[in-house]
């Protein structure tokens, strides 16, 4: 991190200061001796305001700090409660690490990684909390954009992420196998837990957004679905995606949402496309072929419906297999009716995705 002009980069200095307790009279009994340590990089020799957190002192510039944070501006514009070393002194309630984070954002800007990682997520979480508290908007918006990029509400973006994960994690174990002419999820793939998203627990991100009052469905819905796709539990060792970070209301919302998604998925599986509307001008051959194809498809998918944790991905796999291998046509469907059936399946898949905010009671 680059130094800023006026910063004293010397080793942190320890000083004993006589500090008057806030909201007290000028009585000597209300003055105590405190050993302060100057922050090694955020104690500016030409600063004109002192912020203290526990025993750490930050000497900053009132004009710079006030410009970036309306909360700090209001604090600095308020009545003087104490002085120290001849400067205005404000005792902060936050931890030194929190204030260090805020001041680094103000003086240095926010170093944004292109992707949220295990290493960067604690740092970004602290920035979002502190910048939300002190109303420093730009870093908040940049972090929210990172979250939305990682857990997108746009189905094409979600599909691209899933495909990248599939290619990365399943070099040896196929995600799906053929069963009765239909592609179904490979049990060996699940048992290897190749599809678990355990790098960053979506429940922790949901809790962070709730804490910072960023409650937009466009942010929360993909996280709820990501959580539902992995192993989740109430207690015991934190294996997989533990739901402990969620509030009681969000735990209830999550459980209800999972059941609603699975029910909608089951409904779509058991209800074949409306024959009359898509092939009314066609022969009985196509209608019989559709019934035969859908009966096989439904049987294979229903076996995994209540064990399936990713119905959106399962429908994508079935549709892709039907398009590339022309499975419906092998049952006797003509090309035109095959296209109409696959378009109907795509519509059902999009419905699963777009109905999720409602299922999780986020709208």
TrEMBL record:
Query: Matching Pfam families, A to Z?
Result: BTB (PF00651)
Question: InterPro entries in the record, alphabetically?
Answer: BTB/POZ_dom (IPR000210), SKP1/BTB/POZ_sf (IPR011333)
List residues of the BTB domain.
Answer: 47-109
PROSITE patterns found in the cross-reference section:
BTB
Would you indicate the residue range of the signal peptide? none
Protein name per UniProt: BTB domain-containing protein
